[in-house]
Amino acid sequence: MKKERASLQARRRKYGYLFTAPFILGALVAIVYPIILSLVYSFGDVKATSAGYDISFVGIENYKWIFTVDASFNRTLVSTLKDTALNVPVVIIFSFFLASVLNSDFKGRGAARTILFLPLIMNSNIVMQILNSDAVRDNIEQKGSANTAVFSGVFAGFLEQLNISEGLTNLLTSSVDNIDNILAMSVIPIIIMLAGLQSVPKSVYEASYVEGATGWEVFWKISLPIVSPMILVSAIYCIIDSFTSVSNSLISRVKEECFTNLDFGIGSAMAWAYLLVVILIVAFVYLIINRYVSYSD
């Protein structure tokens, strides 16, 4: 009996490898091989020739060049880090707020949840090509920038009346100016946090209110601790999404260096240096937020 069971498990394992073989081969050819090749390029001087390309090993000279000689790499990297540092906290707070609202009972909740998926739909290639056409883009930029400027000015005046500090006012108004990107980045975190909130039995909230807890106490003692693992996941997702966005200026710089200037050595060095910075930032954020995450069954 044990031999038959072992034989059945062996056959299932063999069929599993058989069905996953196309994905494994595709990953090796389309992902792993280009990654290794780009790492080799980053330590070499790559020259295009009639026969393909010629590479000569130069050590870490490419990395020295992008950090000490190139005039725009450090500036673009700092600008990218600054934008991410400003956008991610706003996205997390905004996502948690909307997830809390959508988790409550109100009329039209289904329609409101459906609308939140529109940014995902807008990322489809066909819709993006339409939006990127000259006529549509010009119309959106003219009307959108005018409306945003008016609202941003009114919002700034409101904050000044509340005696909000100038630094915080600039931060909030810049977030208003960047509201379209913040909305697009918030879709997945909202879904993640909403799933976390929905996993809490309603009896837990009912029991807390029966015991006399206020809404503020329920937020700090129940909602926030339960959703804290989701906040960690959402923060890491937002950081990676921001660093790998197609609108990222540093990504555009790497593409320009590789495919416009055909300098694959410098472009690969930029990509790997950027990847190392992203890994360090994600690890740092994980270590910081994970200290305050509450894991419970």
Please characterize this protein's 3D structure.
The chain is built from 13 helices and two strands. Helix 3 runs antiparallel to helix 11, helix 9 (179-198) crosses helix 11 (215-243) and helix 12 runs antiparallel to helix 13 (264-290). A hairpin with a 2-residue loop joins strand 1 (44-49) and strand 2. The protein is extended, with a radius of gyration of 25 Å. It has helices at 2-42, 61-68, 73-103, 109-116, 118-122, 125-131, 134-161, 166-177, 179-198, 202-210, 215-243, 249-260, 264-290, and strands at residues 44-49, 52-57. It is mainly α and 297 residues long. The chain starts with a helix and ends in a 7-residue tail after the last helix. A two-stranded antiparallel sheet has the order 1-2. Helix content is 80%, strand content 4%. Mean pLDDT is 76; it is low at 124-128 and 140-148.
Q: Can you tag this structure with a few keywords?
A:
mainly alpha, 297 residues, 13 helices, two-stranded antiparallel ribbon, single chain
Which helices and strands appear, and what pairs or packs with what?
Layout: H1 2-42, E1 44-49, E2 52-57, H2 61-68, H3 73-103, H4 109-116, H5 118-122, H6 125-131, H7 134-161, H8 166-177, H9 179-198, H10 202-210, H11 215-243, H12 249-260, H13 264-290
Antiparallel strand pairs: 1-2
Helix pairs in contact: 1-13, 2-13, 3-9, 3-11, 7-8, 9-11, 11-13, 12-13
